[in-house]
Amino acid sequence: MDIHEIINKIYPIPEASMNKLTKHLSKVTYPKGYHILEAGKTETNIFFIEKGIVRAYIPVDGKEVTFWIGKEGAAIVSLKSYVDNQQGYESMELMEESELYLLKRKDLQELFKEDIHIANWGRKFAESEFMQTEERLISLLFTNASERYMKLIRNNPELLQRMPLECLASYLGITPVSLSRIRAKLKRML
């Protein structure tokens, strides 16, 4: 996904503002398995995914609990690091070789001061991140595992081919065995 599409998907900005913003972006490529962020470290930069997929996870009782998955068009950001300049609690791992756009926090902060369109874009970006977090929380609290799985395959069916099932099970808040049972039950129903 082109960076102009990614930025305008968040909130459309005029061409002059787009040019200012994109001048501060650099394109980086990392291999599968690369950690953009490791728990306990600070990463204040923002990355936008042009190609690839990433997961955010927290180690709990010797297991990795995946709580977020991003693909083309998504932003990779540790809000704790970005907002408070503190160590992140999560690790973020690339699940495929990925091409990303890097935006340094200090550059973005300067652009917010210089350009109202970019400042408004930043506000809309923050709002969309909060909305995604709220939707995820509500889904985990008020839907069952089968409903969450059905939503996943309805909205992001390609994740079944691009992510290990153990990560998807964790993301859905269930064990791999439970995910296998849900999948088998759905196959019988079809």
TrEMBL record:
InterPro entries: cNMP-bd_dom, cNMP-bd_dom_sf, Env_Response_Regulators, RmlC-like_jellyroll. This is Crp/Fnr family transcriptional regulator. It comes from Bacteroides vicugnae. Signal peptide: none annotated. Residues 9-112 form the Cyclic nucleotide-binding domain.
